[in-house]
Design a protein that fits this description.
24% of the residues lie in helices and 28% in strands. By secondary structure, the protein is of the alpha/beta class. Helix 1 crosses helix 6 (141-151). It catalyses: alpha-D-glucose 1-phosphate + ATP + H(+) = ADP-alpha-D-glucose + diphosphate. Pathway: Glycan biosynthesis; glycogen biosynthesis. One of its GO terms (molecular function) is glucose-1-phosphate adenylyltransferase activity.
């Protein structure tokens, strides 16, 4: 069985949709696309979809980019350049480059594939795995591909169980006991319940498996349909469901769990609150996502940096971190950290106190600053003595503060304080 899955994975091309901004992350995506946003101390969000593909044996990959893609493209070039053509491996970056005419950029997720059909065909894949590049999870795609081939489905849709109230923001499917999709509705006001569980619904993960030739035909027909929005969730999948050829693949069947993980883990970190929470959760004694497991590594570009350093040992001026993750190149100089996640090259100065802080690479916290429940964007220089997390009204005037009390701080916000 495992050999069969490996063979099918080798015949598959993964197409990663990575062009979205992720506007709910506000200023974090002013200069980078959502898939390029930092996550977990060393990685970027897109690394999870790419690592899942590689670990599943799918080593022909295309990444479609569009919105402010420079940071994403640079990351992929630096961290994902190990593919070898002589081993039938490849990773192509496909920016929106007006492949079909001189007017149209990618008009939807389906169009983002259709505009690159000639490039995809050149690899002659038998199956195409369409992935979203902006979620955090570990999954063995080869299990899903095997189900697709075994059942003879026209499309196999990855899905996960969510509370019905939360399902209103997803594409939701109604299925029978054999996993046939009976209905597919995009962001319904009243999501259909799962069979046998009226409190939950099956939400689409934005993961699809197609036979390649069938997908080509489908996309070419969709491209000339003036009524189509050229989107998988809105147009392509509902059409296949109506024809009776769509199958669901529950995430729990192929989710990768190590010894520490007790249940399937999948997160959309598309809001500041969700992003902060998912990062801080990694500091738990037993986190819901195990990024330490060597049997399913999360590949990434790893900057060359010295080990983290903690200095000073005086009362009130002790470099220390409790329940925290500190990356290479960080210097914790006479400051205290509790439940914090520091990316590469972060510096914190004497007498500073940080609690619940997610500090992106090369940010710096000045002396006697106090930060609680904060996301620091890359390169932010927090001035000495700044206090965030004690006065909600003042925080909201100066920074981006969410309803849950998380403050996003960018350098432009800091600059406005000093003018």
């Amino acid at each position: 069985m495992e050999q069969d899955r490996h063979r099918l994975a080798q015949q598959t091309l993964a197409y990663v949709l990575a062009g979205g901004r992720g506007s709910r992350l506000k200023e974090m995506t002013d200069i980078r696309a959502k898939p390029a946003v930092y996550f977990g101390g060393k990685t970027r969000i897109i690394d999870f979809a790419l690592s899942n593909a590689v670990n599943s044996g799918v080593r022909r990959i295309c990444v479609a980019t569009q919105y402010k893609a420079h940071s994403l493209i640079r990351h992929i070039q630096r961290g994902w350049s190990f593919f070898r053509a002589e081993r039938n491996e490849s990773l192509d970056i496909l920016p929106a480059s007006q492949q079909l005419d001189e007017e149209n950029w990618y008009k939807g997720t389906a169009d983002a594939v259709n505009q690159n059909i000639k490039i995809i065909r050149s690899y002659d894949p038998k199956y195409i795995l369409v992935l979203a590049g902006d979620h955090i999870y570990k999954q063995d795609y080869s299990i899903m591909i095997e189900q697709h081939v075994r059942t003879g489905a026209k499309v196999t849709v990855g899905c996960l169980e969510v509370p019905r109230e939360e399902a209103k923001g997803f594409g939701v499917m109604a299925v029978d006991e054999a996993d046939n999709i009976l209905d597919f509705v995009e962001k319904p006001a009243d999501p259909p319940a799962m069979p046998g569980d009226p409190e939950k619904a099956l939400a689409s993960m934005g993961i699809y498996v197609f036979d390649a030739e069938y997908l080509y035909e489908l996309l070419l027909k969709d491209a000339i349909d003036p009524s189509s929005s050229h989107d998988f969730g809105k147009d392509i999948i509902p059409q296949i469901v109506a024809e009776g050829g769509a199958m669901a693949h529950p995430f729990g069947r192929s989710c990768v769990m190590s010894g520490l993980e007790s249940k399937p883990y999948w997160r959309d970190v598309g809001t500041i609150d969700a992003y902060w929470q998912a990062n801080i959760d990694l500091t738990d004694f037993t986190p819901g996502l195990d990024i330490y497991a060597n049997d399913w590594p999360i590949w990434t570009y790893s900057e060359l940096s010295p080990p983290a350093k903690f200095i000073h040992n005086e009362e009130g001026r002790r470099g220390q971190a409790v329940s925290s993750m500190v990356s290479g190149g960080c210097i914790v100089s006479g400051s205290s950290l509790y439940r914090c996640l520091l990316f590469t090259g972060v510096k914190t100065h004497s007498y500073a106190e940080l609690e619940g802080v997610v500090a992106l690479p090369y940010s710096e916290v000045g002396r006697r600053a106090y930060l609680k429940d904060v996301v620091l964007d890359r390169g932010v220089k927090v001035p000495p003595g700044l206090v965030v997390g004690e006065d909600p009204e003042l925080d909201a005037k100066r920074f981006r503060r969410t309803e849950q009390g998380i403050c996003l701080i960018t350098q432009s916000m800091i600059d406005r304080l000093e003018t």
